[in-house]
Amino acid sequence: MTLRWIVLALLSMVIGALPFGGATQAAEPQVPVLWDAKERLPKPDLSALPRLRFLTTTDFPPFNFLDGSGRLSGFHIDLARAICAELDIVEKCQIQALPWNELDNALQKGEGEAIIAGIAATPESREKYAFSRSYLQFPARFIMPKAKAFTEPILDKLRSKRVGVVTGSAHEKMLRDYFGTVQVVTFDKPENLYADLKAGKIDAAFGDGMRFAFWLGGSDAAGCCRFAGGPYLAPEYLGSGMAIATRKGDTALAAAFDYALQEISIKGTFAEFYLRYFPVSFF
To answer: Is residue 216, in this structure, part of any structural domain at all?
Structure first.
């Protein structure tokens, strides 16, 4: 399996706004598009559904958290409300926050119909839940000092460069497997990785694009660096992203979420939420 396979077979499926072969640093923030606009999903009839209760947590910003006035806020909260609007069941919708370790029990006991809190869709979790399609994935990215940042194609340009990565992470394995010509420099903590990148002790860092985006947009980075090359999606290393979980038998409800999520994407609502909560795009 080659780097070209990652970029063409994975990236091109989910980022409709980017050209095949990777993403260069664009003037406008890139928004991930995970839905094929040519595929039209049927609108479900949920008129018989008594209520739809989304279960979430308060400790996973920017996805779900309590704002300064104590209100439940975040990307997931806005997304859940938009889903209810698309399904024409706003009056039946509720969002309830619970501790993470109580979510599954509440769902299985019928105290909610869906969990929107970042449960990973894995072979193991699919034994317990039915999932919507993924609505957000987390690419691996390179970051480099602004003056030296590469654009795609990046593989040959990275040859013999010192690239930092968190030791023992999925990103370390991915870096070693697909960018075998670089000098891998491992770090126990992300903050040490960032410090060495700023100090010029390494040429680039490789890791989770979302975490990198928050660092790049924060005061610690002090405007030193930027994304280099494009986003890399590889589910076998990084998972399949975020999806909404329902009880295993509620496949019709999961399909209803698919319809709503596609409509939210097509209408631009998802892009609005994404840019609101992720002003430095990690795609």
So the answer is: yes
- 23 in a domain, yes or no? no
Q: Tell me which DSSP letter residue 87 carries.
A: T
Measure the CA–CA gap between 62 and 190, rounded to whole angstroms. 19
> Has residue 12 been placed in a domain?
no
Tokens of 203: 């040429």
Full-model pTM: 0.85
**Dihedral sign (CA 65, 69, 75, 79):** positive
What are the two backbone dihedrals, phi and then psi, of residue 193, each rounded to the nearest 5 degrees?
A: -60, -50
Contacts (Cβ under 8 Å, ≥6 apart) of 51: 92, 93, 94, 113
Report the b/e string of 96-106 with b at 16+ CB within 10 A.
Answer: ebbeeeebbeb
168-222 residue pLDDT tens: 999 999 999 999 999 999 999 999 999 999 999 999 999 999 999 999 999 999 9
Beginning with the edge strand found earlier in the chain, give each strand of the sheet holding 245-247 in spatial order: 93-97, 52-56, 114-115, 245-247, 129-131
CATH code of the domain containing 181: 3.40.190.10
Q: Is residue 20 part of a domain?
A: no
- pLDDT tens digit sequence for 143-177: 999 999 999 999 999 999 999 999 999 999 999 99
Q: What are phi and psi of 91, to 5 degrees?
A: -70, -15
Domain that holds residue 104: 52-136+240-277
